[in-house]
């Protein structure tokens, strides 16, 4: 499974339609504090099925939608699209898999796989076996991992089997 | 379940000894169970940087702990054949030499897996195949520049 | 006690607005009580980097949070006229521009107070009046080199 | 109050007698991960009266004594000496104040002010009003400070008065 494209629109600080076409090898995201780098990672988590608002650094789900600035009004929807090249990692019969997730200020959420509406659980199942969610390391995860008596270490080890 | 866990445990130990030695030259690493109960005991992580004493990972300096934790987490991701590795500023507490070794290890992994990094560090940037610069030229709004290392061109994308 | 706390609170707010604006240009900062009970309520910290919305400190990015926390902690130390400020690698999550502003603020404080910093950052090093390089040439044993910036000499001390 | 000198002997990784004569302005300590920089800060904390083994990153007090390497044996004592220039910050009638703290593997601890034996509390009282202990910022303190409902913020504010 390979992540080929990330597309954001209205997700957190990405009010403008933004596309990343990823190349092979190592891709780095750089920029000043607060410019939106971790927001991109939040978008990847959210679009692959993350629901924990704490993990997504949002107090309420609406906080994921662009909240506006002094010169731009808030938007009504947050959308993230991820395009994957499927070489066996995803249990579907497509070579290319596009996962799209939307959330509206009305409170409605939409989930689509290759533009076919589905449920959140269908998206989560796609990535359940690929270990996607534990493939994201940050300072917080390292700190939690350094706590010697937490269950985290065991859960990670058991997830390999 | 016990047998499976034992095998996984042994496999992770091997992988961890590999990744830790690559990040901390001549370093030794081990994972152990704190008690006899295979399914309930805590998992202890022991490391020994070159010339130091073998101690539990939590007892070392900030950078040494980060190195040990990253080595073990990478080992776990390797064992489950993760197709992607995403890391958000984990190089922040590391010194230059440790960053070089981390970069080298990730370049090794990037032959088979996709690697996405967020960093403030120049060396990490230079070692990557492609860079996306994120800015907020317009206050509060993220804009992307894609910086191509090969041809040193700056392109606006999105 | 209530009157004293009110005065301290007002004083800290002023000092915080000063330090935060120095670290985050055109930024606004505020401290508030979460409830009416002056002696029991939680203390809320609100900041607004230029062009962004006023929110509680905890809701911002890693670097923005660090900047706000450091600004308020420095404000507290200023109000109590701390003769010394000791900081251990607090610049790790900050980008280059924020580090420059932090250095400038510390240089301002260093006229009246003593400042000891631990850092991996080159710019922070260059901005200091004296540098001690710590190494472990002999494994497991700390050795000190004192590097004098003025005359660029390297002296072994201790 | 000005810290003029820091002297370490047998404290953690500082097996060899080590002296820092501090100049005015900003002093930085640099070096590779694990070389001993934070240990110097631990030494300052310990010598000004810190007793929390957790804050000093030691499981037991003996862990503060140089534990030996493959080529050097452990030492029997940890000693830290701090020399202060007293311009009013310390409630004593000396212009120069030297604080010395020792701990022996036997479990015995010694405390001296200007080479006169005293109790731990006497050392702690010297620094009680100078706000010395909260003058040390590190990643951990910043994280604790970012916890919105902890008592830490209030305690810090009240300590100013
Ligand atoms: N819904 C939203 N609408 C607009 N802006 C938002 C929204 N949610 C978050 N932000 C802004 O995004 C910024 C945080 O972005 P992010 O965490 O990605 O920064 P970063 O690039 O990772 O920075 P650092 O290097 O400090 O970690 C914050 O300033 C926050 O105010
Ligand atoms: N009693 C002791 N005897 C010998 N070595 C010790 C003792 N206590 C701690 N150490 C060693 O000191 C080292 C930690 O030093 P310290 O925390 O000062 O590192 P640091 O320079 O701050 O590194 P970093 O940049 O990673 O934060 C560890 O490797 C530890 O093994
Ligand atoms: Mg971030
Ligand atoms: Mg340290």
Describe it:
The complex is a heterotetramer, with two copies of chain A (161 residues) and two copies of chain B (158 residues). With 161 residues, chain A is α+β, with helices and mostly antiparallel strands. Helix content of chain A is 21%, strand content 29%. Chain A contains four helices and eight strands, in the order βββαββββαβαα. Chain A has helices spanning 37-47, 120-128, 139-145, 152-158; strands at residues 2-9, 18-21, 26-30, 77-85, 96-104, 109-113, 116-118, 136-138. In chain A, strands 2-1-4-5-6-7 form a six-stranded antiparallel beta sheet. The longest helix of chain A is centred in the N-terminal third of the chain and has 11 residues, at 37-47. The mean pLDDT of chain A is 94. By secondary structure, chain B is an alpha+beta fold. A three-stranded antiparallel beta sheet of chain B has the order 1-2-3, with helices on one face. In chain B, strands 6-7-8 form a three-stranded antiparallel beta sheet, with no helix packed on it. In chain B, α1 (2-23) packs across α2. The longest helix of chain B is centred in the N-terminal third of the chain and has 22 residues, at 2-23. Residues 152-158 of chain B have low confidence and may be disordered. The interface between C and D is large, with 66 and 61 residues. β4 (84-88) of chain C pairs parallel with β8 (136-138) of chain D. One adenosine-5'-triphosphate (ATP) sits between chains A (12-13, 31, 33-39, 63, 65-67) and C (52, 60-64).
